[in-house]
Amino acid sequence: MNKINYRISLLVALMGVSISVSAQKKQKPNPQKEAVIASVDNRFEELTDVSDRIWSFEEIAFQETQSAAALSDYAESLGFKVTRGVAGIPTAFVAEYGSGKPIIGILGEFDALPGLSQNTVPYKSPLHEGAPGHGCGHNLFGTASLGAAAAIKDLIEKGEIQGTVRFYGTPAEEKFFGKLWMVREGLFEDVDVVMDWHPAAETKTAVQKGLALVDFQVEFFGQAAHASADPWNGRSTGDALELYTTGINYYREHIKPTVRIHYHIQDAGKVVNVVPDYSRIWVRVRDSSREGLIPVWKRVEAMAEGAAIMANVEYKVSLISGVHEVLVNRTGSAALQKNLESLGPISYTEEEQDFAKKIQEATGKPQIGLVSKIDPMEETAEHSMGGSTDVGDVSWVVPTIRLSATTAPNGTPWHSWAVVASSGMSIGHKGMAYAAKALSMTMVDLFQNPELVENVKAEFKEKKGDYVYKGFVPDGPPPINSNLQD
Amino acid sequence: MNKINYRISLLVALMGVSISVSAQKKQKPNPQKEAVIASVDNRFEELTDVSDRIWSFEEIAFQETQSAAALSDYAESLGFKVTRGVAGIPTAFVAEYGSGKPIIGILGEFDALPGLSQNTVPYKSPLHEGAPGHGCGHNLFGTASLGAAAAIKDLIEKGEIQGTVRFYGTPAEEKFFGKLWMVREGLFEDVDVVMDWHPAAETKTAVQKGLALVDFQVEFFGQAAHASADPWNGRSTGDALELYTTGINYYREHIKPTVRIHYHIQDAGKVVNVVPDYSRIWVRVRDSSREGLIPVWKRVEAMAEGAAIMANVEYKVSLISGVHEVLVNRTGSAALQKNLESLGPISYTEEEQDFAKKIQEATGKPQIGLVSKIDPMEETAEHSMGGSTDVGDVSWVVPTIRLSATTAPNGTPWHSWAVVASSGMSIGHKGMAYAAKALSMTMVDLFQNPELVENVKAEFKEKKGDYVYKGFVPDGPPPINSNLQD
Amino acid sequence: MNKINYRISLLVALMGVSISVSAQKKQKPNPQKEAVIASVDNRFEELTDVSDRIWSFEEIAFQETQSAAALSDYAESLGFKVTRGVAGIPTAFVAEYGSGKPIIGILGEFDALPGLSQNTVPYKSPLHEGAPGHGCGHNLFGTASLGAAAAIKDLIEKGEIQGTVRFYGTPAEEKFFGKLWMVREGLFEDVDVVMDWHPAAETKTAVQKGLALVDFQVEFFGQAAHASADPWNGRSTGDALELYTTGINYYREHIKPTVRIHYHIQDAGKVVNVVPDYSRIWVRVRDSSREGLIPVWKRVEAMAEGAAIMANVEYKVSLISGVHEVLVNRTGSAALQKNLESLGPISYTEEEQDFAKKIQEATGKPQIGLVSKIDPMEETAEHSMGGSTDVGDVSWVVPTIRLSATTAPNGTPWHSWAVVASSGMSIGHKGMAYAAKALSMTMVDLFQNPELVENVKAEFKEKKGDYVYKGFVPDGPPPINSNLQD
Amino acid sequence: MNKINYRISLLVALMGVSISVSAQKKQKPNPQKEAVIASVDNRFEELTDVSDRIWSFEEIAFQETQSAAALSDYAESLGFKVTRGVAGIPTAFVAEYGSGKPIIGILGEFDALPGLSQNTVPYKSPLHEGAPGHGCGHNLFGTASLGAAAAIKDLIEKGEIQGTVRFYGTPAEEKFFGKLWMVREGLFEDVDVVMDWHPAAETKTAVQKGLALVDFQVEFFGQAAHASADPWNGRSTGDALELYTTGINYYREHIKPTVRIHYHIQDAGKVVNVVPDYSRIWVRVRDSSREGLIPVWKRVEAMAEGAAIMANVEYKVSLISGVHEVLVNRTGSAALQKNLESLGPISYTEEEQDFAKKIQEATGKPQIGLVSKIDPMEETAEHSMGGSTDVGDVSWVVPTIRLSATTAPNGTPWHSWAVVASSGMSIGHKGMAYAAKALSMTMVDLFQNPELVENVKAEFKEKKGDYVYKGFVPDGPPPINSNLQD
């Protein structure tokens, strides 16, 4: 049957509740989990300082020099063995502690977004006019993950658990997808399980796939001419570009509901009175899976030839990069879910709730403040909607367990000044600490329970099947100094 | 949360199975149901004759003069009181028998599709070159429904049940949607429940909503000019039309996955060397619900003004007609499902299966023959895909119970010569008789069981809520002699 | 210098006047010219009858069976030797009288235009609703030319001049350009000079080139799909066609001011709910010369591949036909000009002028009536504007002298009902007789004056230069039963 | 008649030759003309120094601070009375000498073009990478005009002629058209005749009109949305912009051959994953006359509303500025022509010709070196092609006489590095001196010959007719700090 049903299966959800409720009851006190919680609490000021510095560095993809240094130096100071500049990326690094199996990894991002600089006030007010800002909360992301790794380090150091904890400093998530080159370099080959989280407007185990995605650019090369005196001697790349986008928009009728295509016209000519001889467009194609994505991607690439023929110009298609959808590991996620339920929601002060409501007012959202309650673990939808992440690629080479933790008011528009504001003050700091605790608690489970690791790996192996992972990444070094303007 | 999950809830489906299996066990012999089955069998030759004549008349929307006469004359000959030419449509009629409550209606369509004329052979071979053909099996549709009504009439006549049975001869389903004007006329106001079926490649209780839909045409009026001598004196409606479709295609990025927009360019100029001064396009917008449809419809209509301004021409938007999605009645459907399970699948001869497989071969489908098994009743999806029907409008003014019955080989492309072939021979005839039985058995339930009628009505009332039905139909008479070319 | 100056050189025009005025003075009585004038007057009723019959036959391109018969039968009755069905065209014929050199040809067209049927009244009123009509006055054209040939025949018959007169019955000028196949057949190879005229709203020697032109069609072949259920399984030829026209419109920026491109969308899908799998467009490209035309033509053809790639469909480009611009012969034209000046303007009755003014009123033109005065011969512009004719192709294989004669009110929109009306009554008849006289007088010059013929040929040879004529005509027979709809 | 003939009237041109040849014979020695020639020669080093400094300043429109200072300071040092910052433009100034009537003005431009920085070598080699350069030779333009004014000043100073000479320092010709605001300010109201020249690849009296032009920008304002998560919540200004350009390209079929429309997409969104909520396009419309321009301009402006409606966004159209075509004064031009013929062509060294040929080789032009011969004065074409200038606006308020003088190799692509190279070395310097001489000689004619001034004014008055000049300039101050990026 070719029909797709869009619905919410309530019964299943209800059953899920009962399972987790009963699981919650079985939870016993676990000294190592109490230890990691204490570790995070003990380092709260240090972590806050690192996070706030990264927040104020406002560094974007592949330019996160100070941010990477803040994290790697801190790791080094805690006793981690740090390898900087991995995978050909100056701002990528690995910080490791312990030895032997299991090897449990944890990912930390730290890049900002262009144009979002903002003060820690609940109304739009740039810290540095026109500068980038942490509109995705990655200052908290990298710091919390390192905080979790440090808590595990404390246990290994004390001999309470055995094995290796490894923190991955992963740059350029917002653009270019730095993890692609780290995966290509084989940096995840010996890892048993990877953990990961993301700042959010809610707290939950993250079990949706996100979307697979590919970025490529099309360049057109033509012949300039005076637009008034002899336009007939020009071969216009502006025409090619516009015909190309027209073709893409006509094609939308013929893509499945799960596919998205968007583009950014980067150069459509430089002056009004010249037929342009160079144009460039950045194209992004997404689908709920790699398999669905590939034929659409190839189709949209192929259109460039058609546009070039129509406008009588030359063209070049270049892969930028792209990500896989996440291979969700529900076995590992269930372990994380228990720890969330054990931790319960984050507590906020009245001032924090007031700040949150002001942000909600300023962004036109219901003024319900911060929400951090722990709902039952969601079903994993066959077809996701929303965004994409390069954690997807990691998840296809090593089982990955993912968390979302509240760092911003409910309903906050992501990638906005409002996230920057929350990420630089106590609301963000609390989410960071919460994430560090939940992640390190789950890592304790993985270190303590070899069967859990086996089950996590078994699910991973079964879901991956015969697929031999190959990243959407061009040959050659990462585009560190690329002139790609986004 | 704004997320849509596309999935199949297996647990719910399995529960559905167990319910219906246990229901099946409870089924006891019912003399009235046996009587209607016998009635249909007794009239099989007459019904086949009516169906085959309609099949050979090959009459399209609002031109079904002979087909309407065949059905209404036959009803009259059986003792029904027939009212012809209702709702301003010469080929619409009502045939009624009995008196008092309940009043149970049944719908019968009988229009053909352009260009599909075909012989009863399993390869493409037109009966009349270029003529219409019954590619949707409506010759069977109208006849089976009348056969069911006649079986009920026999019971009323014998005094075995009380009330009124009413057959609606509903023309122009394939185009214009004749039922809209019949609903507008109030012809369904006193009915308790309506039944309906449709020829198909499978047999099941029909519980999906289909899509709401609206058809409108846009006309552009400009200024002709010699395309070579003075094109600057022309104001081109061809330009307006093309800019309009370009706008529609750009808009596709901004519609929800459940929306469909398609169009048919009907007139984009008549000769190559004249700037056209008249152009016309037929536009269809669909969504899974009326509520979702309306804003998109209004948006696509509004674009016509934009295109007209861009091309400096005048424009006119005219509503053609449109349909609501079906308000599904699961209570009534469950009663029908029991009767299907009681009847079991249709039996086919080896010759019929061979014929079916040849059709499957000719149309590139798996050669698995005819399939008529009775699966458990499906869940009703929140968002349907596929087609639309003007039964939708009936379903918003009176509770409607719907059946699909096998009249063509599994996988047959609908609206194709293959359906015409099957509809004119024993495969179609068997499906027709089967439908007449299942429908009349369920009508027996409705006549015998006032509580069922009440429950059916209660579900209808609850689902309809506050909505005051208003059809997507222009003022004035139906477009009987419209020059709308599709 | 790449600059084009658009201007009217008054001084040159004034010098032209003085030359022709002095030439006029030298004009002596010429008995043969008086004889051909008398011949035309004597046959006026017969010619009028032939013309009016063709007018009432209303036959379009390649379907002019009765019209061709009317002319060829009349020629035969006058003693011409008639060869029918030449060049593979049933309605093409040659009628010849006399023997030996010189051979002077004269062209006669007789096809009507679709949709222009009209009575001989000065307001729009179809003779036969929806039928074709003589909106280009070709009923007069063919008849006057034959009348001129007949007048020459009389002189040959009497032995007053020596040589051969040959009338060419040339069908399908309005579409397909029948003369192309007659030229290809070699029917003009032995001719010394050809004469030709055209009905018009003014009287003058025709010395402008018109435009070279090519017609081709592009067909796209895709994959049908249900526009709502699975549009992603469709490959839309409608999309290809629209992208193709978009490409053409973008290309307009890059064509010279003398180029024209127009198109007629002939098939962009047949119903609203199916992704179309076949589309067809008729494209016409023009320029002021063959040399300018060819690269643009090839460019617009090449675009079809681009559109097909963009929409992922197949395509086919087919040449329909095309014409050369006219190779103007000013030497021969000067001889014709003298005869016009000798004849002077046509006289009209008050009724005719009233009729003309009513037509002008109805078509929004200045009500100045009929204009037939003889202005000095125009300069031949480097780049023409306006229309095209297949006389162009004849003019590249044999020197051609051309006349315009008044048959309709000044300013009448051509190809309109107004021309049909005038062509069926005395206004048209007078123009026809006038043309027959002017043409036969000039033929007398050619027969009497071998030096004139030599000079005409010398100019032809010089202007043609090295060019080896090749018509824009596909291989194979003429498209007599073509399904090309225009 | 609606036909346009594109041709060159040779006879008229030949007559022009004979007139000017005879005029040349009458030329007698004129001591004042010899004096101005000597003045220019005497100041050659100073002028070269000013020109070379402006060349090296590389300052673009409205930012020519140093360039304006170089010219105005030099003028002041010569005794001119200088008024800086006129018409609200910091870099606009007026330098005047003498008193009383006649007042003869002369225009001097000095702005550079972006991205053309170049050394004085015959191959592409930027002086400052990415910096502007004098690709239109305006360093020579301003300096030569001031040199001519200074020569006249010398004569006034000596009492040899009476009246006032006034130099206008006119910035921003390449963009924004600075003279518009100077005209609006009334700075030309009391002037009798204005002179002007332009660097070129040939030497001649400039008697073509150029094109009238208008620049406006269209901004669209929509609603941003995540391009993947909820594109249906976005109202895309990118769509509006693309629909707008599509509309413009369709409109090209319906503009006269003399019209040009070009545009520059300045902002079509900033990142790939956001539906853009702001877009901006710069549109330029040209025609051979103001009258032809206006309706096309208004039409293209009106299209913005259509595009906005189609994309459901808001829009704003803002006039940037625009120029009139030049009102050519042939009486004044004839006086200039005589001086050119008296001066004869510029002499070049072998090295200069070699340099020129290398530039021609590098730019793919015939290697014929520098061409400075004096041809007869051209006819003024009814419809010009090519570029536009804000001298057009001056020419509608005061009679204007214009010169082109050779400063670059024949065939050099204008607005290219090759012009920058020539403008910074001896080839440019020679042209500058030549222009200064020809202009000052013609100014001598105007000062000496009141009848010439009267005749010049009479022609101006007749050609201007009833037209009340109104510049295409928005209300408010000039866009000195505009963020308009071109």
TrEMBL record, chains A, B, C, D:
List GO molecular-function terms, semicolon-separated.
dipeptidase activity; para-aminobenzoyl-glutamate hydrolase activity
Per the UniProt entry, the signal peptide is 1-23
Q: What does the UniProt keyword field contain?
A: Hydrolase, Signal
Family matches, as InterPro entries? Amidohydrolase (IPR017439), Aminobenzoyl-glu_utiliz_pB (IPR017145), Bact_exopeptidase_dim_dom (IPR036264), Peptidase_M20 (IPR002933), Peptidase_M20/M20A_hydrolases (IPR052030)
GO cellular component terms attached to this protein's record = cytoplasm
Q: Which GO terms describe its biological process?
A: folic acid catabolic process
The record's annotation in NCBIfam families points to: amidohydrolases
Its recorded name reads Amidohydrolase
List the source organism: Algoriphagus kandeliae
